[in-house]
Design brief:
The chain is mainly α. It has 6 helices and 2 strands.
Length: 120
C-alpha cells in the first residue's frame, strides 16, 4: 500500500544519506564524493541539529526512462506524473504549506540539467 511505499522510500533515503553525506566513496563518475553537509554546516553552524528546513531535489530523471518510472509511480500513488519535474512554485507551496514549512529555509539541490527551475 502507499504507506508501506512511503516508509520504504524513507528508509532508502536515510540509508543513502548516512552513506553519502560526509563525502564517503565516489560519485557516478568515479570522482571522490562531495560533502553534502557543507551547505547545512555553513547555513546553520552549531544549530544544524535543531534547524528546521526543507530540501528540494530537482532532477531530470534521465529523460524517457525517468518519465516512464514517474508515470508508473503516478499511476499507483495518484501523484501528478510531471509536477515533480517542473517544480512550479504553486506545487512546492502546496506541499510545504500544510506542513508549516513556508516560513523556514528551503535548500535546493539539482542535477544541473534544468537551471531554469531554480529561477522560478
Amino acid at each position: 500500500d502507499l504507506n508501506q511505499y512511503v516508509e520504504f522510500q524513507g528508509h532508502i533515503l536515510r540509508s543513502l544519506w548516512r552513506s553519502y553525506n560526509k563525502g564517503v566513496g565516489t560519485d557516478m563518475t568515479k570522482k571522490p564524493a562531495g560533502d553534502m553537509c557543507s551547505v547545512i554546516d555553513a547555513m546553520f553552524g552549531n544549530e544544524k541539529h535543531s534547524a528546521v528546513y526543507s530540501v528540494i531535489h530537482s532532477r531530470t530523471m534521465e529523460g524517457d526512462p525517468g518519465l516512464k518510472w514517474l508515470r508508473i509511480i503516478a499511476s499507483t500513488s495518484g501523484c501528478d506524473p510531471v509536477a515533480a519535474l517542473d517544480m512550479e512554485p504553486e506545487y512546492v507551496k502546496a506541499i510545504l504549506a500544510p506542513l508549516g514549512m513556508l516560513d523556514h529555509p528551503i535548500l535546493f539541490i539539482t542535477d544541473h540539467q534544468r537551471p531554469e527551475i531554480l529561477e522560478k
